[in-house]
Amino acid sequence: MIKNITNVRGIKCWGAHSGVKSLRRDLALIYSEVPANGAAVFTQNKVVAEPIKVSRENIKGGIVQAIVINAGNANACTGQQGADGAQAMLKTAAEALGIDQKSIIIASTGIIGEPFPTEDVVKGIIESAPKLSSKSNAGSFAANAILTTDTFPKEGFLEFELDGHEINMGGIAKGSGMIHPNMATMLAFIATDVAIESKLLQKTLKEVVDRTFNMITVDGDTSTNDMVVVMANGKAENDILKSEKDKGYDVFKAKLEEMMKHLCMLIVSDGEGSSKFLEYTVKNATDEVTARKICRAVSSSTLVKTAMFGRDPNWGRIVCAAGNADVPFNFEKADLYLGDDKEMIQVLEKGKPLDYDRNYMKRVLRESHIYINLDLNEGKAEATGWGTDLTTDYVLFNSVYTT
């Protein structure tokens, strides 16, 4: 059986149907047998869901032993009733698992503004806690239980060596629409048995999120519920990582980035109504922040997305979007390429348009995976982002989301 998050030492999971959603699992538990050092980043939306408020406080202690996620209801804009529901989730999980409330992270995903189904969720937690398991199917149950409009579960697993110790890392994520994280509903939960201090883990998570989850977009909306959580329980028994200079730290950071990139790409590939996976690269920028901002501006452009949907090689939209990134660059030095995994066609050289076969380019743009590379020729920094086209199917789907 394919390995997943339950193959991390000391990690148990379960995913159940509590009744919030019809006929699908809608409640997930991720549990560490021992308290784990934890880190998290949350949505930058000024309107936040009730579980975000709770989890922001709990993560300050740096310890995470359990994560509880419900699907089908976002518990956002729900007032006191929703706040009480979030506290009920926390209290029930602590009692059912026999652990400190402050070591629990809670998350919700679903429709905003609907009364929170506290009774169903609480009952689901009580019934699920005794079923926690380290079997692979339990991890897959959890991955399925956090889905909303997703068409498939998103899982990942890595094994690697760190200073003579075997390290395991597993993750699950969800996201299909309302994807434009800035740390869609976008949730990701990663567990590893590496030993690392929580402060260093938090710093590392933030840096890696900036290069991965904060570089994806489907529709330009940052959710009220976005959350990425990492728990590291130390069961691998490596010498605890305390500093970026410690032996093995660079390996751990690279593997965490690999895991997050994998989950990111699964989320984008499942974008609501999308027909294309778009990969954007900005090369040779003066610094990484500039590269990321330009990359985000282009990938977020509605006009670029619609052009790619229509297989229209209207590259002027790309450079226009780059110019809206609010960072300086010299367009007269820029080169631009469009293509697929077989061929990249240059359409711009040092700011001047090149002749190309428009009909041939339209055939290239029929492919499901399209690459857009902008070379600024001003430095050595680079950034990559991922997104989708914007289709009529997306508009139709989201025009009747609650009806």
From TrEMBL:
Xref: CDD domains: OAT
Superkingdom of this protein's organism: Bacteria
InterPro entries assigned: Arg_biosynth_ArgJ (IPR002813), ArgJ-like_dom_sf (IPR016117), ArgJ_beta_C (IPR042195)
Active-site residues, record numbering mapped to chain: T185 (nucleophile)
Keyword Acyltransferase: yes
Catalysed transformations (reactions): L-glutamate + acetyl-CoA = N-acetyl-L-glutamate + CoA + H(+); N(2)-acetyl-L-ornithine + L-glutamate = N-acetyl-L-glutamate + L-ornithine
Pfam families in the record: ArgJ (PF01960)
UniProt subcellular location: Cytoplasm
GO molecular function: L-glutamate N-acetyltransferase activity, acting on acetyl-L-ornithine as donor
Site (Cleavage): A184, T185
Site (Involved in the stabilization of negative charge on the oxyanion by the formation of the oxyanion hole): T109, G110
Enzyme Commission code(s) on record: 2.3.1.35, 2.3.1.1
UniProt-annotated binding residues for substrate: T148, K174, T185, E272, N398, T403
HAMAP family: ArgJ (MF_01106)
Family: Belongs to the ArgJ family.
Subunit and interaction comment: Heterotetramer of two alpha and two beta chains.
Summary of the function given for this chain in its UniProt record: Catalyzes two activities which are involved in the cyclic version of arginine biosynthesis: the synthesis of N-acetylglutamate from glutamate and acetyl-CoA as the acetyl donor, and of ornithine by transacetylation between N(2)-acetylornithine and glutamate.
Protein name, UniProt field: Arginine biosynthesis bifunctional protein ArgJ
